[in-house]
Amino acid sequence: METIEFHRPRNLDWPRAAALLYGDWGTSKAYVLGLAFVTSGFSSLPIILAVCSLTALVGANYVVICRCFPEGGGVYSSARSQSRLLAIIGALLLVADLTVTAALSGWAALSYLEVPSQYVLAGTITVILTVGILNYFGPRPSGSLAVILAAPTILVVVVTFLLSVPYLSMQLPIHKMGIERTWSSFVSVILALSGVEAIANLTGILKLDKGSSIARPQIGRTAFKAILPVAIEVSVGTALLGWAMLSIPEELSQEMFRRGEDMIRFIAEFYGGLALGATFSKIYGFAVGIIFSLLLFSAVNTAVTALIGLLFITARDGEMPRAFLRLNSHGVPIAPLAIAVALPCLVLISTNSFEALAGLYAIGVVGAICVNLGSCSLNWNLTMNLSERWIMFITFLVLVAVELTLARTKPDALFFVLCVLVVGLSLRAYVQKLSGLRTVTISREIADIAESEEIEKVLRFRAASQRILVCLRGVTSALEFAFDEALLRRAELYVLYVREVVVLYPGMHTAPSRWEEDPQASVILNTALGMGKERGISVVPVFASAAAPAGIIVDLAATLGADFLILGSSNRSTMDKVLKGNVASQVAANLPDSIPILIYG
C-alpha cells in the first residue's frame, strides 16, 4: 500500500481556541479561591499571588511548546519525541488528572447550584454516568458551550470585582506562617494550572501563521494570541477576586469556610448585597451560580471525552491493549468509555469530600506538566533560544519540587497516582509481551543505521497521466464505474475507505492504521486490488480513521491533486444524516473548484 500523508483541517482561529482553553483553564478559579481560604484563611493573599504568578509562567512556557510542536504539543506527543516510556508515563499522569477533573468539576458544579451537601456525592456520580450514556451515542463536544459561556464568565469576574471596589481593604490582615507551612499551602492550591494542557493538544488544528504552509506548519503567533488573554484573565482575575475575598470582614470567616466550595458565588452575593441590596444579591448570586455550574458541567464532559480519546490513541500506538480499539455501532471505543466513566465514580466513592478530591488533583496535572516541560527543555532538537530553554527548565525544577512535596504531604494522592501508573505500565508490559516486543540496548551508530533504513522512502507515487479518487462505504456499482473511468482515462485509481471513529481528543492524529485489520475495509480494498490486477489498472488502497470523513476526503483529494473525485452513495440513515450531516454535501462545499465531483448511485 502506498504511503500517503494526511493533514488535519486547520480551521481553529485564535479567538475560538482562546475560548476553548478558557473553558478548561478558566474554571480553576471556581475552586482555587475557596481552597486557598480553607487552607490559609485571611493569610492566603501571598499564596494566591504566587499561584497566579506560576500560572502565568507556565502559560508562557506553553506558548513555546505550541510553537515547537505545531502538530500537537500535549505531553504524550512532546514526550514521545524523547522516549516512548516517558510518553506513556506522561499520558498516565494525564489520565489521573482527567479522572479527578471530571469528579471535581462535577462536585463544584453542584455546589454552585447549592445542592444540599448530603446529595452532592450521589448527584456528581449521576452527572458523570449521564455524560457517559450520552457519549455512548457519540461524543458530545462541549467546546461550543465553553465558547458561549466564556464571555459571561469573564463578565461575572469583572462585575463582581467592580462591585467590590468601594469596599476593598488596602490593609489586608496578615497572619504570619512559617516557610514550610506557606510552601505546603501553596502546593495545596496549585490547581490553577489545570487545563493548560488543553491548548497544547489543540495546536494540530490551529490556523497556520501567515507565510507558513501545511508542509512546514507554524502556529507560534496564533498560539500566543490564544494563550495570552486567557493567562492574563486567569492570573489577574484570580488575584483580584482573591483581594475582594480577603476584604470581607473577618466576622464572616465561619460562613466563608462553609462556602469554600462555591466561594465566587459567595463573593458575588456579598458585594452585590452591599452595593444594590438583598434582592439583587439573591438574583446576581443565582446567575453566577448558573454560569459557573454550566461551565463546570462542560468541563466534566470535556474531561470524559478527552480521557476516552487519550486511552484510544495510546491503544492505537500499541501502548495499551487492542481491546481499547473496539468500537460500538456509533464509532465510540467501548472499553475507554467504560473506564472514563468508572474511574471518576470510583474516585468519588473513595474520597467522599471536596477537599479530598482537591488533594488528589494537583499531583496528576503537575506531574504531566513536569514531564512536558522537562522533555522539551532537555530536547536539544527543538528550536528555542537560550532564555526560553532556561526559563522552561527553571519552571520544570519548581514544579518538580511541587510534585515531590505533594508526594510527601499527600499520601492519598501519591497512592492514587501510583495505582494509575502501576496499572497502566502493567497493561503496557502485557501488550508488549503479546506483540513480541523487547527492549534492547544498541550503540548509537547501529541505531542511526537502523533509523536511516527505516525512514527511507521505498514507495513513490506511480507516474500516471491522471489520478482518480473513489470513496466507498461498500462494494457497490460505484467501484465498477470508477474502474471504467480509470480505464477510459488511463488513470491511476485511489480507492479510499474512511472508518468513522468518533473520538474527540484534540491531539489525535488522523494517520491511517492497517486496513487489513479492519473487516469492512479489508473486503472493499482487497476487492479493488483484485479488480485492478485483472484489468491491468494501477490501484492504490487508502485507509484512514476519522471522526469527520468529509475533511479527510477533501484533504486527500487536494493532496493528491486528483483529477476526478467519485463518491459512492451514502448508506446512512436519515437520523444519522440529521445528527452528523450529509458527507457528499460537506465534501462538495469544501472541495477545490478545480476537482470535479460525481456522486454515483
How would you characterize the overall build of this protein?
The chain has helices at 14-25, 29-40, 45-68, 75-80, 84-112, 117-136, 143-164, 179-188, 197-202, 220-246, 253-258, 263-276, 278-316, 334-351, 354-377, 386-409, 411-435, 444-455, 477-489, 519-535, 549-560, 574-580, 583-590, and strands spanning 466-471, 491-500, 539-546, 564-568, 597-600. Helix content is 64%, strand content 5%. Mean pLDDT is 80; it is low at 1-6, 452-464, 507-512 and 572-581. The chain is elongated.
Features:
601 residues, mainly alpha, five-stranded parallel sheet, 23 helices, 5% strand, elongated
Q: Give Rg in angstroms.
A: 26 Å
Note the overall shape: elongated
Mean pLDDT: 80
Structural class: mainly alpha
Spans with pLDDT under 50 lasting ≥5 residues?
A: 1-6, 452-464, 507-512, 572-581
Q: What helical percentage do the residues reach?
A: 55-70%
Largest sheet: 5 strands, parallel
Strand count: 5
Number of helices: 23
What is the distance, rounded to the nearest whole angstrom, between the alpha carbons of the first and last residues? 27 Å
Beta-sheet strand percentage? 5-15%
Q: Spatial order of the strands in the main sheet?
A: 3-2-1-4-5
User: What is the succession of H and E elements?
Assistant: HHHHHHHHHHHHHHHHHHEHEHEHEHHE
